[in-house]
Amino acid sequence: QVHFVESGGGLAQPGGSLTLSCAASGFSFWGAIMSWYRQAPGKERELIASIGVRENTYYSDSVKGRCTIRRDNAKSTVYLQMNRMKPEDTAQYYCNVGHTNAPVYNWGQGTQVTVSS
Hints:
4-stranded antiparallel sheet; mainly beta
């Protein structure tokens, strides 16, 4: 059974940083494109970053230049380093397999990020 356990969220000040983690299990992590998504209150879930099996990366315009996605295949974990955070980064953050807005697997519980002074 596939599981995603996201962690690392919390309260950050504008301009601050957070690193999110997603521990995955139940599938061949090393062979999967992994992505981070977020859903703000009243908005649809959006894909914000992806990393391929060769560690090629994609970032949405909303986070490009401020976020870094990386993976550790030995730990089946994908990370999202967020810098220069903005109030509009406030959202529930999730990871999943794939590179589209259609999830391959069921969502985990996510981790809440709040950016506020």
